[in-house]
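Q: I have 312 residues here and want to know how they pack in 3D. Can you give me a structure?
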Amino acid sequence: MAGGSLLLLLDDIATVLDDVATMTKVAAKKTAGVLGDDLAVNAEKVTGVRAERELPVVWAVAKGSLLNKAILVPAALAIAVIAPWLITPLLMLGGLYLCFEGFEKLVHPFLHRTEEAQHHAQLLQRLGDSPESLVDFEKKRIRGAIRTDFILSAEIIVLTLGIVSQMPFTTQVLVLCVIALVMTIGVYGLVAAIVKMDDAGVYLLELEGESAWRGFQRSLGRGLLRFAPWLMKALGVVGTIAMFLVGGGILIHGVHALDAWLAQLAAVAEPLAVVGPLLAMLMPSLGGLVLGMLAGASVFGVVSVFNRLLGA
């Protein structure tokens, strides 16, 4: 009897773990759009910090990110229990914010060229400042990165909550905790690798020796130094596109009429020769991208007008 009960318990545990693994994979795919922007933003936040302080700064921000998620996960679970009807409106707000942030990133270089130049000049000046000024600058960078992480973490947690909202409470807890840990370790592990890529390139480039292996290492170092800035730019571009895709996709799924309309367009496009099946497959993504850009532009316009009225 006891053996049978133990087997039943193990079977229940295996079922829960299987559900957790499945839902975690789904949640990871849905939140991957935020991940690209998270990587680019956090890597940019370390810019201007002394090379020997880059990893300690990344570690400090990672600990702040874990604290953010320790606040957000219980809050999300409380919403799921007390007011589950809030999940969809929160998802829609999160989608609108993603679209707004993506559009703001698109127009920022055109609207704030002078500020960008001043920002880079300030970063260069910091390198020659006193140790006290550098410590203060570092602390400000860490606080700013943790604030930004709170927003991005909230988007990830809300997206995940929307995916697991119909699952048992235990599964919700486990999936949210796993996603929080995996995203934190993944993001800040990659951020650490990205910010140290140029240092690795310099190290390889300065290796001495005339062997073929040394020559290959120096060539690899030159490649890393050339690749690092392009990687940062690519992360920014991919992150921006992903914000429109994810944000627009959330809005489409929240408005059933739009979802049904896109499904009809896909059905019409599928019979077309050559491009039909591909167009039908891409229709939800294209619809999300277009709607995301339109929604982002609309929210950006409203925020701009509101700021002007306030004299901001």
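Q: Anything worth noting?
A: The chain has a mean pLDDT of 75. Residues 2-45 form the longest helix (44 residues).
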